[in-house]
Amino acid sequence: MIKAKVYSQTNQEVGEIELREDVFGLEVRPELLHFVVRAHLAAKRQGTVGVKNRAKVRGGGRKPWRQKGTGRARAGSIRSPLWKGGGVVHGPQARDYSFKVNKKVKKLALKMAVSSLLAENRLKIIDKFDFPEIKTKKFVEIKNGLGLKKPLIVLQERYNNLELSARNVPGVTVLLQDFVNTYEVLRHKELVIEKEAILKLQERLG
Predict the structure, then answer these.
(1) Which pLDDT tens digit goes with each residue over 59-106?
(2) Euclidean distance between CA atoms 111 and 36, whole angstroms
(3) Helices (H) and strands (E) in the chain, counts
(4) What is the pLDDT of residues 191-203, one digit of tens each?
(5) CA of 11: how far to CAs of 15, 121, 147, 186, in Å?
(6) Would you report the helix, strand and coil content of the chain in percent, each value rounded to 5?
(7) What CA–CA distance (Å, rounded) separates 108 from 182?
């Protein structure tokens, strides 16, 4: 088991917690993290670009002129790619960029991501957040007091006052424990997680 310190939101040490080594003590494999992050970003791509080929362009149902006898080249449709206003040949089409990642691989990558932050002292466990009112100024004071720059804050359950207080602060993301993923963990400098949330995360990944 790994022992980690628990702090209050004012950065006072209030206790310790035991974390499982098979979740928070793994050796990092960069190629696996890269694969999972690439899959996450690929799935976010919209892929809604597209042009119309000759079958999709409106009009052109009638043959412009008869096949023979006019002296002009043969033509079957005014929507031919050779004509102005015609369809586009081999143009970009809507597509799905996502690719499959096994659940076990996703879980392993997330364990490696949190393990790396813990090893680098960039994971901070907070006993409980207390925000009696929505106040961005107070959140910034607490953030600076904890020595945070660009944190991902993970909560066990929705806390409206904290979420709204942090919403306008650049570089800060607030997530519920159920929605933590490798990409969000790696793109932030620090991971700040409630004690109850880290126990649930450990249970989910163990």
Answers:
(1) 988 999 999 999 999 999 999 999 999 999 999 999 999 999 999 999
(2) 12
(3) 7, 6
(4) 999 999 999 999 9
(5) 12, 14, 9, 23
(6) 35, 15, 50
(7) 9
**167 Rama class: left (phi>0) / alpha (psi -120 to 50) / beta:** alpha
Quickly tell me which residue has 């957040």 as its tokens: 129
What are the pLDDT digits (tens) for 4-50?
999 999 999 999 999 999 999 999 999 999 999 999 999 999 988 89
User: CA-to-CA distance for 143 and 189, rounded, in angstroms?
Assistant: 13
* Strand partners of residue 123: 191
Write down all domains in the chain, each with its CATH number in brackets: 2-45+98-205 (3.40.1370.10), 47-96 (no CATH)
How many residues appear in the chain?
206
Say what angle helices 30-44 and 103-119 make with each other, to 10 degrees.
120
Residue type, 25: G
Strand, helix or coil for residue 18: strand
DSSP state letter for 179:
G
